[in-house]
Amino acid sequence: MSNVQPEHDAKRRPKRNRGCRTKLKTGCATCRIRRVKCDEGRPFCQKCIGTGRTCDGYDSPFRFCNTQPVDKARAGGGKSLIESKSIRGTLTEVPVLDIDDFTRYFSTKTLLGAKLDCDAEAEQVLQASLTDPHVRNAVLSLLALREDLENFPDGRASVAQKTSNYDYGVGQYCLALAGLASNLSSPGSSEAKSALICCQIFISIEQVRGNYTSLAQHIIRGLGIMHELRARPSLGALNQLLPAHHEQLPLLDVFIIKLFSAPCKFKDPPPAPDAKGTTPSECPISGLRTVAPDMRKELIGIAALTLEFLGKVSYVESVDSALRLLSDKAELLDALNAWLADLELVQKKIGSSGPELLSVSFMRLFHVILNIVLLRTLDYSRDNHAELLTEHEQLKDVANTVEEGVKAYRTFS
Length: 413
Description:
Elements: H1 4-21, H2 29-34, H3 46-50, H4 70-74, H5 84-87, H6 99-103, H7 119-129, H8 133-151, H9 156-161, H10 164-185, H11 189-209, H12 212-228, E1 234-235, E2 241-242, H13 252-261, H14 284-291, H15 295-314, H16 319-350, H17 358-376, H18 385-408
Antiparallel strand pairs: 1-2
């Protein structure tokens, strides 16, 4: 009897082990489907790469859920996502955040209840922050500086009192910037992805700080990185189709367009008194809305078509289809030129004096960004390099105008 029982157990044991292997809860999606043990390498496992398979990555540890509106979350002194006591030098890991929670940090427009279509970008950032210290530094900086802004929306504490949140956020930002420089010195696939994700967060950080000139610099550099790494297919000098050099890179241009497409409710300052001390009865923005109520709507329409165009470029597979897309690109650039001409005509009709309205400057900023994105896409070459440089200078000029306007009247309502 003693010899039979072990043999019986030995026959049963392999079945139990095989059953365990079918219930893998970790590892990449490809290995889980194949029901094999994954080495869990990041960003792609070596078991897939070594066998010539496509590694489909890992499930996100972050979940989607509906969160309360910002005003309700903050009403009655509710706790923020980051406790102030944890910011003061002790927070080194990104708090566990829902996708919706983190998405609202991308833009200051969410302080007014605006919704951003950036869940995919938020998940990508949070996923990268688990393993990438530079991304983690950037995320911690954004969370701290945004909390500082929410506590002191007029910016007084950040300038005069230098709160611990602000100091911590700036310190983390400096670490992330140093990391970006390191990544760009040897841009492999993972370093390139990290650099573009960091650029994405830096744009949000500078918006929180009201530094739109620096924001413009990040946009220019980030889009340049995308072009250098060929994040999308493009046409070469002899109209040959060049495939994307790096797959699955963050599409920074799409993220930027989403940010600027979100509803803008920035409140313009009241009209300044004239030389006689008389305050105009009507703010010029009202005149703009009366003469051309659809100016922003038209620009958002062009932005939506641009996103559609970029999506088609990402999946172009033949020279013929790429050449057809060039006509779409030309139409979009013509539409942007026509929109700008209409804006100039409207402002001429209104005939307002003084500095340009902040809401108009924001539209101009978005207009230039769309121009730059399109010029960089599909057939960028030396022929349009001079035009692109001109647009870069224009972006810096408009960004400076916006920055001065924000500093003069930084009030959310």
